[in-house]
Amino acid sequence: MELAGTFWQEIAKTSEELGIKKGREEGREKSYITLVPIFVQKLTEDGYTQDEIISYLETKLALSEEAAQKYYQLAITKA
Question: Is it the case that residue 5 has pLDDT exceeding 80?
Answer without folding.
Answer: no
